[in-house]
Amino acid sequence: MAITTCIFDAYGTLFDVSAAARQAAAEPGGEKLAEHWPQLAADWRAKQLQYSWLRAITGDHTDFWSVTQDGLDWALEAHGLAGDAALRERLLALYWRLQAYPEVPQMLARLKQAGLNTAILSNGSPDMLAGAVQSAGLSELLDDVLSVESVGIFKPAPQVYDLVLQRFGVAKAHVLFVSSNGWDAGAAAAYGFATAWVDRAGEPVDRLPGRPDHILPDLVTIPELARG
Amino acid sequence: MAITTCIFDAYGTLFDVSAAARQAAAEPGGEKLAEHWPQLAADWRAKQLQYSWLRAITGDHTDFWSVTQDGLDWALEAHGLAGDAALRERLLALYWRLQAYPEVPQMLARLKQAGLNTAILSNGSPDMLAGAVQSAGLSELLDDVLSVESVGIFKPAPQVYDLVLQRFGVAKAHVLFVSSNGWDAGAAAAYGFATAWVDRAGEPVDRLPGRPDHILPDLVTIPELARG
């Protein structure tokens, strides 16, 4: 079935979530992160996601910026850096303008040239996403940026994926959903989208009810996939 | 307010979930686990929990034994052990009869001597829990074993915690809920139980809406806490 609409997860998929800790470690004063920034970034990300899922289950929604700060506070404490207010502020500032993966601009440009709809569907709050999209120079390459804030619950709640159908007026099978998060790709597949999981870390596929249709090492071949 | 009822999480709290991988590594033929059984156990546990949360959000419930196998399959593949059917079966068999932490029998006996209600409230399926309780010799020390299977959704959905009130006919504030899982203790605190988080690994407290009332290194002092 012809794909008309390509929807991208943001954090981890278009934007490199470990970039904030990596950049902070490379700056003057970042020596304290030299050894353990990869683990700090992984712990931060794991807690950010964990808190988003737990809040989706209990109905205690808050926005993703709060959850991002909560995850960072846990991770800083776990690494003995809880009192370092300057480091906390620096990491949050860098998270606000994460680097996009290098293949992203050309990949999106090719989708637009092919006449496809392009959008982000993300847990991120609208202001976080606006900051990241703008600093990565992607504004002109995306038709829309959809945030879970308009439904008040995090992924993978089905009402989040519904936002795509409402925005673009398309059937599920005409949507290619792309995520580097295995759980997000799995849920989108179970929901009924065509899905591509970008397995940047070479991890096993998640054992969830939905399985992604495509497993890719990066985003380079998305335009070929989308055009069938 | 007087505590009348002590409710325990099972996996990680009464039963040592890393015991299966640790034991398998120590057995003849377990040399392949020698180096990385702690990481295998951690990955298995992380995916087991992740899949339980994701299924709670999407409404795709299955029982915890299925989720336990799914998590193990992911972890075995991640450690290059996906084809080892004998190891898989051995780890699952050991999971069915996990060791209780050493302080558990006496702690429960003291609660019963003090006239308190005692029970498990767990994600585990009834047959998994029956296996673990029996092999650890705890059957006589627990008034009941409550499983999420009776409501068909995993923790921390509020209807799981409701099972305690329904079973014992008590108000929330008379319940002491004990868990080594920070997210479970946090959710139980937000729900309205008095809570104790058993922080066996010395981790930071989770940044969730509910905070545990007590943070303990193990279960030894639970009887003192419960009797105020």
Automatic annotation (TrEMBL), chains A, B:
Matching SUPFAM superfamilies: HAD-like (SSF56784)
InterPro entries: 2-HAD, HAD-like_sf, HAD-SF_hydro_IA, HAD_sf, PGP-like_dom2, S-2-haloacid_dehalogenase
Reactions catalysed according to its record: an (S)-2-haloacid + H2O = a (2R)-2-hydroxycarboxylate + a halide anion + H(+)
A matching Pfam family: Hydrolase
Superkingdom per UniProt: Bacteria
UniProtKB keywords: Hydrolase
Family the UniProt entry places it in: Belongs to the HAD-like hydrolase superfamily. S-2-haloalkanoic acid dehalogenase family.
Stated role: Catalyzes the hydrolytic dehalogenation of small (S)-2-haloalkanoic acids to yield the corresponding (R)-2-hydroxyalkanoic acids.
Protein's recorded name: (S)-2-haloacid dehalogenase
Species of the source: Lutimaribacter pacificus
